[in-house]
Design goal:
Elements (H helix, E strand, L loop, with lengths): L11 E8 L3 E7 L21 E4 L5 E4 L9 E7 L6 E9 L9 E18 L4 E8 L5 E7 L5 E4 L4 E3 L4 E8 L5 E11 L5 E12 L3 E8 L8 E8 L6 E7 L5 E3 L3 E4 L4 E8 L7 E9 L5 E10 L1
Parallel strand pairs: 1-7, 7-14, 15-22
Antiparallel strand pairs: 2-5, 3-6, 4-5, 6-7, 8-12, 9-11, 9-13, 10-12, 13-14, 16-20, 17-19, 17-21, 18-20, 21-22
Length: about 300
């Protein structure tokens, strides 16, 4: 018997990002068996029993037979390795007890990342520092992020990571909206395209205190934007420099992104609202930050289109 193994067809790919050296526990719902390609037709006794097998013997992979008409789930428990390891495995789904031919083959990738919890405020810049450890040889590396609009990296471009040395990577987080979310950060060797380090930033972002609220009406469907003005009073006795930001840069632009105002004086902020194609309402936040990009005040503008 001459055996020639053929590569199998992958029906579906799953990719999970998880903190390093922890267990990933996942439940995945199986589609109804009769919708799977190659499923037997006209089964005697109703629905067939489903069986699953994993290509990695160290992974717990099981499914339980459910009652008629009930959905069936696959349970996975995978031990994650150190960052930036990527674990790859396959899960085969069978409808015959002899496991002769799979009806589906699923491919899984588990990315192990270094977890970093970040508490921040929407619209305010939060500075952090990550420790980079050099490998046996010096490498030219560069940092890439899943949300470049919300995560600043210094150094920004490619830089040299010395062999066996320690270097800081400075990052600045500025989330545009409150709530919990994930941001991925990868450090890549620019010459060999190898992954050197990976981080999972778990953001817990709070809403700043809103000190003033405005409501304006703008025409919907118009091709032209609209200019408005609001005033801000410097509460300090000395001159101050302020920076402006918003959670909706697609709807609001400032005449100037920063301004300086004398102690106790009033400054007029010029606003430019983009036209909206549909009627409705939007809440737009205006962040007024100090010279360190810490939030001094936040205004809320409710726009009725």
């Amino acid at each position: 018997v001459k055996v020639e193994p053929q590569p199998h067809v992958v029906d579906q790919t799953f990719r999970f990002y998880h903190p390093e050296l922890t267990f990933l526990k996942k439940t995945i719902r199986l589609p109804p068996w009769h919708t799977l390609p190659g499923a037997p037709v006209g089964m005697p006794g109703g629905e067939p029993e489903m069986f699953v097998r994993c290509s990695d013997p160290d992974i717990i992979c099981e499914t339980k037979k459910m009652g008629p008409g009930e959905p069936q789930d696959i349970f996975l428990k995978v031990a994650g390795g150190p960052s930036p390891q990527i674990k790859k495995f396959f899960v085969a789904i069978y409808t015959d007890a002899w496991l002769a031919a799979p009806v589906q083959i699923w491919q899984f990738y588990l990315h192990s990342l270094q977890r970093l919890d970040v508490s921040c405020m929407a619209g305010q810049l939060t500075h952090l520092s990550l420790l980079l450890r050099g490998t046996l040889a010096p490498r030219r590396v560069r940092a890439f992020t899943s949300h470049p609009q919300e995560l600043e990296v210094d150094p920004d471009g490619a830089f040299l990571l010395p062999a066996n040395g320690i270097q800081d990577l400075h990052i600045g987080v500025r989330s545009r909206r409150a709530g919990s979310r994930f941001i991925y950060l990868n450090l890549v060797d620019v010459e060999s395209h190898q992954l050197v380090s990976s981080w999972l930033l778990c953001l817990s972002c709070s809403q700043p205190l809103i000190s003033k609220a405005f409501e304006i009406s703008l025409p919907a469907g118009g091709g032209r934007g609209c200019n408005k003005r609001i005033t801000y009073t410097n509460p300090y006795p000395s001159p101050r420099l302020y920076f402006l930001g918003t959670n909706r840069p697609d709807l609001l632009q400032f005449k100037e992104d920063s301004f300086e105002v004398a102690g106790g004086e009033v400054y007029t902020i010029g606003l430019r609202f983009a036209p909206s194609q549909s009627a409705g309402e939007e809440e737009i936040l205006i962040h007024i930050n100090d010279h360190e990009d810490k939030n001094e005040e936040t205004f809320c503008v409710k726009v009725l289109y």
